[in-house]
Amino acid sequence: MGKDVLEPGDYIVCLEVKMPSKGPTFWVSDCIVIRIVLPELISFIAGGEFRTIPYGGKAIMNASVSSDPAHNISSVNAIPLKVTWAFMSYLSGTNFDSFQASTQALPAGGTYHKIGNGTDCLLLSLDTSLFNNGDMAFIMFKLTRGPRTSSAFQVIKMVTNAVPMALRYIPGSI
Q1: How many angstroms separate the Cα of 75 from the Cα of each of 11, 69, 127, 144, 174?
Q2: Which of 1, 20, 36, 170 has the smallest set of CB atoms within 10 Å of its CB?
């Protein structure tokens, strides 16, 4: 266990204050229970929730900034971090609005594929030439360690001659 790090669990913290000016037997004490819990896992797919990607080549889905903030706790590292990618493809004709209209369910008519499951697969390479121009896909990235789970989602549309674009904030003065 690292410096200034408590393992998850319940801790009793007591404070006893003696006041010699009030007499040798005058003291006050109190105790509280502090519960230390693990932080949430962080899942993120670069590029935002909705992306247009070039049709006919390779596209990389990047979840490399996903992490476990509690990675420095030894009892946490004893449990492997698992990664799962899932992919649901839709034929052209499906539009972005159908994904934004419902937060409870995916649009009907998709084909589900579980792509990867492992401990070190934070990048997913997608061959867009296997699809048609205008096809859409719903991608899920799931990070799991023991009972903790976190997911990130991305909807992509494959378009001929789409310009790949990435936005990145760089702090500093303008």
Answers
A1: 17, 13, 39, 15, 44
A2: 170
